[in-house]
Amino acid sequence: MDLFAQMGGERTIQRIVEAFYPKVLEDPLLAPLFPEDIYPVMEKQTLFLTQFFGGPPLYTSEFGHPRMRARHMPFPITPRHADAWLDCMRRALEEAVPDENLRQALLERLSVSAHFFVNTDEQAT
């Protein structure tokens, strides 16, 4: 069974996204990277995470290949940004996913991606 089914599908993805973005917007390191109107970002994240965790390819159907590293290149992303993003996601997962082992599996998968987006050294910021 894929992670999407294990976590409870779209409903859980929605809970994760809704728990995640308020944390991002409160984070002094991350908030400046996001637009004031966060709702379009949340909608895209919902589509992406659905696909990322093994659900239907909603993101690709609407926007084409994710090309996530290329889409993040305009933003300076340091290892500290990746860690802050993962901390927000860890806390969102704690709220949205009751099973600790499943939370850990989701976070491990996301950790690889978060660090893949790093495109700037700490000294450059």
Describe this structure in words.
With 125 residues, the chain is mainly α. The chain has helices at 3-7, 10-26, 39-52, 58-63, 68-72, 79-96, 100-116. It has a single domain, classed as Globin-like (Orthogonal Bundle). It is built from seven helices and no strands. Helices cover 66% and strands 0% of the residues.
Straight-line N-to-C gap: 42 Å
Tally of DSSP helical segments: 7
Main beta sheet: none
Taken in chain order, the helices and strands follow as HHHHHHH
Strand proportion: under 5%
List how many beta strands DSSP finds.
0
Count up the domains: 1
Comma- or semicolon-separated keywords:
125 residues, mainly alpha, Globin_bac-like_CS, GlbO/GLB3-like, single chain, heme binding, Globin-like, transport, 66% helix
Quick recap of the structure?
This protein has about 120 residues and is mainly alpha-helical.
List the helices and strands and how they pair.
Elements: H1 3-7, H2 10-26, H3 39-52, H4 58-63, H5 68-72, H6 79-96, H7 100-116
Helix pairs in contact: 2-3, 2-6, 6-7
Pfam families: Bac_globin
GO molecular function, one term: heme binding
Family: Belongs to the truncated hemoglobin family. Group II subfamily.
